[in-house]
Structures are given as C-alpha cells and as structure tokens.
Amino acid sequence: MTQLLLSLGSLTLGGSAAIVLLALAGHLTRSRYAARWRCWVWLLLCLRLAVPLTLPQRAQAPIQVEVPPAFIQAPVPTHADGPSVQIPAQSAPDASGRPAEPAAPQEPERAAIFSFSPAQALAGVWLLGVTGVLGWSLLSHIRFLRYLRRWSTPVEEGELLCRYRDLGLRAGIRGSLPRLLRCRGLRVPMLAGLLFPAVLLPWEELEDQQLDCALLHELLHFRRRDIWLKALCLWVRALYWFNPLCYLMTGLAHRDMELACDEAALGCLTPEEYGVYGKAILSGAKQISSPPSPSAPPGGAH
Length: 302
Known about the structure:
Layout lengths: L1 H27 L6 H15 L21 E5 L8 E5 L29 H34 E3 L3 H13 L8 E5 L6 E3 L5 E5 L5 H17 L1 H14 L4 H25 L5 H16 L13
Parallel strand pairs: 4-6
Antiparallel strand pairs: 1-2, 3-4, 5-6
C-alpha cells in the first residue's frame, strides 16, 4: 500500500510538471506545429499516467540462504598457512560435566491481527475518490444510452446516406462507417459510442453545406480514434482526481483534438469551401455555448 502511494506521488509530481511544460509549449508554438502532434504527446503522457505503478529500483534474489551459526572457522595447526577446517561449535559443559544442550529458539512475537496505518487511510480516500469519479461517469453514460435508445432513429434518407458515404471516402475511411442516427434534443452533430460508434444528427434539418461540413468533422474524429483518447483522459482524470492539473490536461487535449480535426478537414476541402466550413464551425460553437434546452440528452459525449 505504501508503495502504491509513493508511485502515485511520484507520477503526480512528474505528470504535473509535464502538463505545465506541454501547456506552455503548446501556447508558444501553436503556429509552428500542427495540433495532431500535440495530440500524440497527450496520448503518450496519458499512457504513462494510466498505470500508477513504478518499476522496482533493485531486484532481489529469489532464493536467500542463511549460513547456520553452528560451524566456526578454525585453522588446522599441522601445516602453516594450510587450508582451514570447519569444526562444529561445542557448548560449554555444565556442573555435572555433560555438555549443555543448546537453548531453544525463542518464538517471535505474534503480529497484531489488524493494524490501521495512515497509509491505509490515504489509500482508502484515494480509492473512494476514484470510485466516485468513475461511478458518476458510468452513470452519466448509461443515462445517455437510455436516452439514445428512446429518442434516436436511424437515418433512412437515401440521398443523405449517399452523401454520408461520399464524405467518408473524402475523409480517408476505407472500412465501415459509424451508424447515422437522428436524435431529439441535440443541437449539433456529434460522435458517440466507444465500442459501437454512431454519428448523431439533430432532429431539425440543417442546410446541406453546413451538414456536410459537420459530418466531415465527425468522421475525421472517427478516423483519428479521438473517442479512445477521450476515454483514456477520463481514466487518468479519475485516477488523479485530487490533482487539478489533470482536469487542465483533459481540457487541453480536447481542444487539440478539435483543432486537429479542423486541420485535417481543411486538407480535405477545396479553398472555395474554407469559408463554408468556418461558418459551420462557428455556428456549432455558438449552439454549444448557448444555454441547454430542457430536452437535451443527459451526460456528455461531445
């Protein structure tokens, strides 16, 4: 237990320093390096923090042999500088002339059945926080899935499905595409689902150009597997719930993922389509920043 707390402490200090340095480097070099490289750095940092264990400093021998004290080293007087012979140690005779029996070894004191240490108390508080954060996230996800099962329907318009497949090829996706669903309460299209991903569309109809730009953005999220990075960030945030810099890391990683998708989308569009894509992104950001409606789905999966 103590080793686990020491590992958490060392990883917290090292991870905090790395987060601060990466945040400063991203702010200073944002115009020089693409956002996708910062996403790779966040991924490597999250992978290191995801397992709060440190390697042992020194490996111990698997078998340890103790030399019995019943033998003493005594020189043989016949030859000078000759080899030595091990002679069993004899006990001193008692008053009757018989050699005294060796004393029986003393039994070690029995350890206490239960001992409550400060390390165990800290570990219990840490486990309680991890369970609370993961439990709340799991509960929100279950509520969101229940909302989708009730209020979402598959898209059946043939023209929209054809455009959706064309946008998938444009985004560089050669395999199967996520399901395309319409859901009540949504304001902007979004990608949801870790194992069974789906692109969710608002119930209200969007303009064709704005819808195509939004679908391209979400398909690029799918191609880049950003939803797995978001899940990894959630796991790290749950492990280090006591460190506010981990919440900062999650926000910065989400921002860089959005910027990386925007950069990839500009590579798929023509210069004439840049303005349309920019208007679509600004419109979506305005919709997200506005107060939520009563019919909005619970939980977060943006």
